């Protein structure tokens, strides 16, 4: 939902029309979901609200959940940039910690009212929380490859894959707890410093 129009090449008429239809559908879906609840809104309702046919809707989105999450490429690119463009001296786990915490910003801190609505909708809809998690975790292999490239390891290095997996998993830690941000930080302390430093337990041989 970020506005990066100024950074994109100029679109032709067909592409502009396609983008406008996608936006109209996504906007209609979010509005209806917020007003009536996700489970009470059907595909036909969304298509009618956007003044298109259900056939047109399915040309743009594979299902109802996808109408809420339309930034898969942007999410992946941001994750990879967090690793590749991190400040000098910042460790990879530290850079991923910063990125994951930003992705969990409390309601309203992104400054976009539609983002606030989206966060609240996902938070209160189990089906969307599950879909969001699948969308997030699907970037594990690409993230692991970027980490491996940064440290000069083979693309299938198991340590890089483990770091990618657990860094992504950390986003949803403490979801139902009193302090989710503290839970995320605790997990990244482990990823960055190891078990002995985090737990206070003496290291093994």
List the helices and strands and how they pair.
Blueprint: H1 13-36, H2 43-49, H3 54-60, H4 72-84, H5 92-103, H6 113-123, H7 126-137, H8 140-151, H9 158-169, H10 180-199
Could you explain the architecture of this structure?
- It is built from 10 helices and no strands.
- The protein is mainly α.
- The chain folds into 2 domains: 55 residues, Homeodomain-like (Arc Repressor Mutant, subunit A); 128 residues, Orthogonal Bundle (Tetracycline Repressor, domain 2).
Structural class: mainly alpha
The major β-sheet equals: none
Strand portion: under 5%
**CATH architecture identity of the largest domain:** Orthogonal Bundle
CATH homologous superfamily heading of the largest domain: Tetracycline Repressor, domain 2
Q: Give the C-level CATH assignment of the largest domain.
A: Mainly Alpha
Q: For the record, give the distance between the C-alpha atoms at the N and C termini, rounded to a whole number.
A: 49 Å
**What fraction, in percent, of the residue positions are helical?**
55-70%
Morphology: globular
Flag low-confidence runs: 1-8, 106-110
Radius of gyration: 20 Å
Secondary-structure element sequence? HHHHHHHHHH
In the CATH hierarchy, the third-tier topology of the largest domain is known as Tetracycline Repressor, domain 2
Please give the domain count.
2
Count of strand segments:
0
Task: Provide mean pLDDT, rounded.
Answer: 85
**Number of alpha- plus pi-helical segments:** 10
């Amino acid at each position: 939902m970020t506005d990066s129009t100024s950074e994109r090449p100029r679109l032709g008429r067909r592409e502009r029309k396609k983008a406008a239809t996608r936006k109209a559908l996504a906007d209609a879906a979010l509005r209806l979901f917020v007003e009536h609840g996700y489970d009470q809104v059907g595909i036909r309702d969304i298509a009618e609200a956007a003044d298109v046919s259900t056939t047109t809707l399915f040309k743009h989105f594979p299902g109802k959940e996808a109408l809420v999450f339309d930034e898969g490429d942007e999410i992946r690119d941001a994750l990879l940039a967090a690793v590749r463009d991190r400040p000098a001296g910042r460790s990879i786990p530290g850079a991923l910690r910063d990125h994951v915490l930003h992705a969990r910003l409390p309601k309203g801190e992104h400054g976009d009212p539609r983002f606030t609505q989206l966060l609240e909708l996902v938070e209160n809809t189990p089906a969307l929380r599950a879909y969001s998690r699948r969308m997030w975790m699907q970037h594990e292999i690409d993230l692991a490859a970027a980490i491996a490239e940064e440290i000069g390891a083979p693309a299938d290095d198991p340590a890089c894959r483990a770091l990618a997996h657990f860094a992504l998993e950390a986003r949803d830690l403490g979801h139902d707890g009193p302090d989710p941000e503290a839970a995320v930080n605790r997990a990244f302390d482990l990823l960055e410093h190891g078990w002995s430093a985090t737990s206070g337990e003496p290291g093994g041989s």
